[in-house]
Design a protein that fits this description.
Largest sheet: 7 strands, mixed
Bound molecules: guanosine-5'-triphosphate, magnesium ion
Distance between the termini: 32 Å
Oligomer: single chain
Number of helices: 8
C-alpha cells in the first residue's frame, strides 16, 4: 500500500532536509507532502531546492496558521491509501513507520497511534510536567471514550487515508491532536497503538507546544464527546 507522509513544517530549517532524506530512504511505496506553514527561517526554500525534479514530493506553502492548518492543507494532496503525520523536527523517527502502518496493511486497524508512553523504545527522560499532562489527557480520553490509549497527544498518527479525509477536521492549532483523537474514538473506528521512539527536544531546541495547548485539548476532548 502506498504511504503518504504529511509533513507540517514551521521554522524547521535545522532538520527538514535530514527529515526528508530519512523519509525518502525508507523502503516503502511512498509520497511526501510538505506544508511550509509560513516559515521565516527559509524552511520552504530548503525544501524547494531539495525536491528539484522529484515527482513524489509535493510542497505547499501558506501563511502561518498552526500545525492543525498545516496538516489539513496536506490532506487533499495525499494519494496513498495510508497517511502518516510526520513532524518535521526529528523528534519522531521515520524508521518507526513501517511498524506503525502494519496493522492498517493487515486490515485490522483504521488508525494507529505511535505511543511514547507504552515503553520499549528510546525516550528522552525530561520535561516532567509534559509527561504528567500527556498522561492526564490520555486518561481523560479513556474515561470519556472507553478507550485504552496511552498517548493521545502523540505526533505519530497513521490512518487509512479515506478515514482521515472523513474526519472533517476544523482546528488550526495543536487542538488538532485532541480533535483527531476525539473524532476517531467517537466514531468507534478501529484504533491500535504501538511503541515508538521519541527524541524529544527542549524549548531552546525549538519545541513550541505549551500548557495552554493542554487546556485547549481538554476543551476539545469534552466538546466532541458532548456536542459531536
Ligand atoms: N508550533 C508550531 N508548529 C507548527 C506550526 N505549523 C506547523 N508546525 C509543525 O508541527 C509540528 C509539531 O510542532 P512542534 O513545535 O515540534 O511541537 P512540539 O512542541 O514538539 O510538540 P510535540 O512534538 O507534539 O510534543 C512540527 O513539525 C512543526 O514544524 C505552527 O504554526 N506552530
Ligand atoms: Mg515536535
Amino acid at each position: 500500500m502506498r504511504v503518504s507522509f504529511l509533513v507540517p513544517a514551521y521554522n524547521e530549517a535545522a532538520t527538514i532536509v535530514e527529515l526528508l532524506e530519512r523519509v525518502t530512504a525508507l523502503e516503502l511505496d511512498k509520497q511526501v507532502v510538505v506544508v511550509d506553514d509560513g516559515s521565516t527561517d527559509g524552511t520552504g526554500d530548503l525544501v524547494e531546492a531539495w525536491l528539484d525534479g522529484r515527482g513524489d514530493v509535493v510542497l505547499v506553502r501558506q501563511h502561518n496558521l498552526g500545525k492543525g492548518a498545516a496538516v489539513r492543507a496536506a490532506i487533499p494532496h495525499a494519494v496513498g491509501e495510508i497517511a502518516v503525520i510526520q513532524d518535521a523536527d526529528l523528534e519522531y523517527d521515520p524508521s518507526d513507520v513501517p511498524a506503525l502502518i502494519e496493522p492498517i496493511e493487515r486490515g485490522v486497524a483504521d488508525v494507529v497511534y505511535g505511543s511514547r508512553l507504552s515503553g520499549g523504545r528510546p525516550q528522552r527522560a525530561h520535561l516532567f510536567w509534559h509527561l504528567v499532562g500527556n498522561k492526564f489527557l490520555s486518561l481523560l480520553t479513556n474515561v470519556l471514550y472507553n478507550t485504552t490509549l496511552s498517548d493521545m497527544e502523540t505526533g505519530y498518527k497513521a490512518f487509512r487515508t479515506e478515514v482521515l479525509r472523513s474526519l472533517d477536521l476544523r482546528h488550526d492549532d495543536f487542538g488538532i491532536e485532541a480533535e483527531i483523537t476525539a473524532k476517531v474514538c467517537k466514531r468507534k473506528l478501529r484504533i491500535y497503538e504501538l511503541p515508538i521512539a521519541y527524541y524529544g527536544r527542549t524549548y531552546a531546541e525549538g519545541k513550541k507546544i505549551t500548557w495552554r495547548d493542554g487546556f485547549k485539548a481538554i476543551r476539545v476532548l469534552l466538546g466532541v464527546r458532548l456536542f459531536g
